[in-house]
Amino acid sequence: MTTAGEGRPGDGRPGDAAALAALDAEIAGCRACPRLVAWREQVAREKRAAYRDWTYWGRPVPGFGPADARLLVVGLAPAAHGGNRTGRMFTGDRSGDVLYAALHAVGLASQPTATHVGDGLEVFGVRLVAPVRCAPPANKPTPEERDTCRPFLERELALLGDARAVVVLGGWGWQALLPVLDAGWVVPRPRPAFGHGVHVTLEPRGGRAPMQVFGCYHVSQQNTFTGRLTPAMLEAVLSRAAEAAGLTQ
Fold first, then answer.
1. What mean pLDDT value characterizes the chain?
2. How many other CB atoms are found less than 10 A from the CB of residue 157?
3. Domain harbouring 186, CATH code
4. 230 with 213: CB under 8 angstroms?
5. b/e map 22-55, b = 16+ CB within 10 Å
6. Non-local CB neighbours of 64 within 8 Å, separated by 6+ positions
7. What is the DSSP letter of 182?
8. DSSP codes, 203-225
9. Measured between alpha carbons, how far is 153 from 109 in angstroms, rounded to an integer?
10. What are the pLDDT digits (tens) for 55-92?
11. pTM of the model
12. Within a domain: 6
């Protein structure tokens, strides 16, 4: 299997919006994982009855947020009828409803809802990304698909030169992100375990600032409908991370 972005390292400066836009376009055109390509396109053809009038995006979903973002929010992968439909991370599904409401509550988003590209939503100082860019069957990417997609996240992080903190939603994202961070920051051995509210400071290997890593339960319905993750819990983690990133006083 061909690795996504193999042999095409990011060549822009950290914070370079043009280089990040070029990477986003490359991500949107990726066809490296046959299983994911087949599934995302099948979903886009067959649609869900409630969205039968939609033209689904049906492609990999780039990150969402400015090139000078100081805070990253890392999920798992786009939802079949969310990001895979709308073309924007965490947009058009119940998980996104919870996440953007919390981002708005702590001053990191212009509005509490995210329904479609062009709905007026802006995020402030934060970029939302995923280790896997295509919607996977049963919301479960394989380890091979995760590793194939990893270079995109590595290059994106290299371009986000102002990043100071990251909120990782769920244990799967935590395990996927730590090897990526290890290229630029020192990840302890054994690797820190995931948990809601966990906070780890990673010292840089080069000239960048330390990275503050925060764990948070994923905003999936399994967690939000059962009360395992409440809006107050999510807002608390986002507030701590925003402060660590220098976005709030």
1. 94
2. 25
3. 3.40.470.10
4. no
5. bbbebbeebebbeebbebbbebbeebeeeeeeee
6. 88, 89, 90, 91, 123, 127, 128, 129
7. T
8. EESSSSPPEEEEEE----HHHHT
9. 22
10. 999 999 999 999 999 999 999 999 999 999 999 999 99
11. 0.93
12. no
